[in-house]
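Final report, results section. Input specification for complex C-07:
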Amino acid sequence: MGILEVKNVNKRFGGLQALGDVNLSVEENSVHAIIGPNGAGKSTLLNVLIGKLIPDTGSVMFDGQSVLGRKPFEICQMGISRVFQTPEIFGDLTVLENMMIPIFAKRDGAFRMHAVESTANEKEIIEQAEHMLESLNMADQRHDHSASMSRGNKRRLEIGMCLSQNPRLLLLDEPTAGMARADTNNTIDLLKQIKDERDITIAIIEHDMHVVFSLAERITVLAQGSPLVEDTPDKIRGHPKVREAYLGESA
Amino acid sequence: MDAVILQILNGLDKGSAYALIALGLTLIFGTLGVVNFAHGALFMIGAFCAVSLSKILNLSFETIDETQTDFLGNPLKVKTAYIESWFGPELGASIIDWAVPLAILFSIPIMIGIGFIMERGLIKHFYKRPHADQILVTFGLAIVMQEIIKHYYGANPIPTPAPDVFKGSFDFGTLLGFDPNVIIYPYWRLVYFAFAAVIIGTVFAFLQFTTFGMVVRAGMADRETVGLLGINIDKRFTIMFGIAAAVAGLAGVMYAPINSPNYHMGMDFLVLSFVVVVVGGMGSLPGAVAAGFLLGILESFASMNEIKSLLPGIDQIIIYVVAIIILLTRPRGLMGRKGVMED
Amino acid sequence: MLGLNKHDMKMLLIVAALAMLAPFLLNPFPTDSAMAQFNAGYPDLMQRFVIFGIFAIGFNILFGLTGYLSFGHAAFLGVGSYSTVWMFKLLDYNIVPGIILSVIVAGLFAVVIGYVSLRRSGIYFSILTLAFAQMSFNLAYSVLTPITNGETGLQVYTSDPQYLIDDWETVPHLFGLVEMRSTYTMELGAWSFDFNAGYYLCAVLMVLMFYLSIRIFRSPFGMMLRAVKSNQTRMNYTGLNAKPYTLAAFVISGMYAGLAGGLLASMDPLAGAERMQWTASGEVVLMTILGGAGTLIGPVVGAGFIKYFENIFSKINENVLHEWFGFLPDGLENAVVWVVEHFVGSGWHLTLGVLFMMVVIFLPGGLVEGGQRIMRMLRGKKSDNDAEKTTQSTPAE
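Structure output:
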């Protein structure tokens, strides 16, 4: 029984079968990659996983609880953190403030007022945030305006913000899309480090084979809305069906 | 039954005005992505085009008629409009009488000109700015426009009559087999409704059947792609703004005989027209027109005495109540498209 | 001190000092001099400075922090005024019950209007708040006449019950200690300064409200509100529900508006529906953006600026202009006067509209940002913007 169980999920948009009979099980504390050519239904699947889309049939269970129909903040409170294709950070705030917000959220829950309690006095929160920034090698930038950082650093910050809430599942949507090679490698290293240091499950939807094969322990190949194969990276690399459906077109 | 028909008819003229303004707002919003709070002011300026033309046509000179005397015994001063002296008294008088319809021709170039200047001079700098900034700057512009009008025309409403031919009322009831004098409807309101229908039809036909319209519709759906095709979409959008301004202006010109124009009529209509756009669905042209008529008619029903005695004050707030209910139950409005102004 | 850092404390002290010394500061010209028309130190105007300051500070908590542009805040101002006048009519002229009621009633209104309006964001939110405000305005003028006294406006009549009234009470007062209109005039040579009890009450409240707003800005709650403005998607995926935060901000700013409305009625026991009209809502928006939305002191500056110029500009007429420009050659004088007179006197609204456009076009950060820019230029510091330009990369899809 995996931490994330997708069973018999179907989703149609008009005449288009976006997802057909998707079954997927993500093992706890593994790195599971979902790959597939464009239009294979990766984004649709992701939107189902985070409760944004409700499938026509099937179920999505996280740690024994259904995620379907829940609001984003509830999903997050269940322990699923999401990293977006374009880094979603609080651009108007400083790096340190960006890091403080998820820590506040973790401490106080979805809504608790501290309307007159000064943030400057929240030593404990600030310490945690600074600690997190140090582990990301971003301590020097803590008072920078976060919108003015490079894409690679925004990604780093976003991943850090997710981690600061100690999620059990980290969902990444093409985390290196639009990045320079150096930033891509940095991101891969960061994710490897996270994998080594924490008890965390990582599900990653990715286009870039370099990223996938450097990180993943298991890979699911999606083609035309259905899982084609699921196996270890080595097996996937040599799989004839996969070559045909996916690698074939780029080779 | 007769009362119902009467209320529907009564709602049509206000509904026509809402529909025309909302149509222009939606065109601007759908094409340029700009929220134009000055659109009501364009409607008001249209109405003042009618006022101005009627004033110009009435410009007169004085002559002294020695044969007659006024009550003080002085020779009588006779005012003659220039128009009458140029075209002869009869033709001249009927030109003056037809000032409001003539103002249609007079106002089109003015409104398109104002539209062009507004878009090129101000609005285009706000395409990329947040909607809040667009709202604020056009709100400022609306104040400026109405204050200028107030300065030159004063604060009081200026009666601007329709041509004599349309002054009477039409007994609509007898046509449908009701008793005489049950459903009486002023001619000019019928004219207004017909006029609005023609304008709306023209705009839709223009968008549907011309290549220009096709490009604009494509631009409303996906601006970037159309831009990539090498089509100068900006220029077309400027023209669209001019057309939207002209539609609002014409709505104002023809509305002048129904309600004497005053400087704040634009603001009064603007708030309601925005509500109409939201109810119809942001970015949906048919939605704007349908919601315009729908709300006009609802408002007219709400002002029936039977309903007012049941729910006092409902006539004052019906439009807002409907808008709030619609927005909460159908966030995209009646005919809004997915993805257009979701927030 | 007081939970503020040094910089905020300094700002609070400056605002407090300005408010307390306003009777001196606003009357810098001797009473009989030609410049006396630029004096603003009379009670009525000073009261409006601080009352609208409170209104704008509250509005800024919503608009400046969360970015939700409400076009209906005047409704809360009006509701506040009506509540206070009703307390005068029912109890007596003590202003405290009225002010308390006005804050509570405005808060309740804000809960209802906010709960509904905040289900949508962006322009829909603006239009919903506008619709609610117009609805309140229309109702106040029509069906609710028994409560609002319609076009005449609500005022206190001798036939009103006033259950707690004493014989000596004829005007609003504070527990009988001091009447709101009582003014001590100090003559100092050619100068004269007015110290008005009502003004000082409002000024103290404004300083308190300003302090509260600093605390809100600097609190975790304020940080959440800025996060709402910055990125709602990330907010949601951080396990936070944005709605309660925005609703709380909406209600707080509604209560500020209610307080301002209550104070307006306490200074002059009248309330009219025109206080709720959407032009009044537009005015507070203008004050806030003119001063600088999202900055602490901006709304106070904006409110003072607009109320001052409204007052001064409205007083200027053609004769005054001819006096001013008398040094010019006649033709030029007439031309200048002709242009300027459009903007003064009853043309004040035109100036307001132009100002509105100018600020949005040229000074989106408001006067505070403009001031900071000038300060930076004087100090020769490099602007922070340079860093932003270099590192922006465009996302590839």
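DSSP finds 15 helices and four strands in chain B. The beta strands of chain B are 60-69, 75-81, 169-171, 184-186. This concludes the modelling results for the funded period.
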